[in-house]
C-alpha cells in the first residue's frame, strides 16, 4: 500500500495546479479502501450471512460517514504522516519499476472500483 500511495503522490506532484498532492493521494487511496470495505461487506453477507442492518436513510448515511472517517484516519497515520519517509524509500526506482508500479496502481484502482458493482449486482444485499 505504501508503494501505491507513493505512486499516487508522485503522480499528483507533477500536476502544476495541485497544491496538496499528499492529501489528494491519501483521499484517493481512502476511496479505494472504502470500495474494498464494501466488497468485503458484500462477500460476508453472501457467504456467511453477516449483514449490517441499516433501516433508515439516516442510518445508511451515518454508517457511511463512520466507515469513511475510520478508513481516512487509518490512511492518515499510515501514509500521510509518513509521506516523506515513503517518498525517500521509493524515489530511486528504475524506469521499469516505475512502469510496473503504474500498471499495478491502475489495475488495483479499476478492480477496486468495478468489483463492488459486479458483486452487488450478482449478490444483492
Descriptive overview:
This protein has one domain (2-122). Helix content is 80%, strand content 0%. The protein is built from 5 helices and no strands. It has helices at 2-13, 21-48, 57-80, 83-90, 95-122. The mean pLDDT is 93.
* Beta strand count: 0
Shape: elongated
- How many separate structural domains? 1
Poorly predicted tracts of residues: none
**Mean pLDDT score, rounded?**
93
Structural class: mainly alpha
Q: Estimate the helix proportion, in percent.
A: over 70%
Tell me the β content: under 5%
Order of helices and strands: HHHHH
User: What radius of gyration results from the CA coordinates?
Assistant: 17 Å
What can be said about the biggest beta sheet?
none
The total count of helices amounts to 5
| Terminal CA distance | 29 Å
Would you spell out the secondary-structure blueprint of this structure?
Elements: H1 2-13, H2 21-48, H3 57-80, H4 83-90, H5 95-122
Helix pairs in contact: 1-2, 1-4, 1-5, 2-3, 2-5
Descriptive keywords:
0% strand; mainly alpha; 125 residues; single chain
Compact overview of the structure:
The chain has 125 residues and is mainly α.
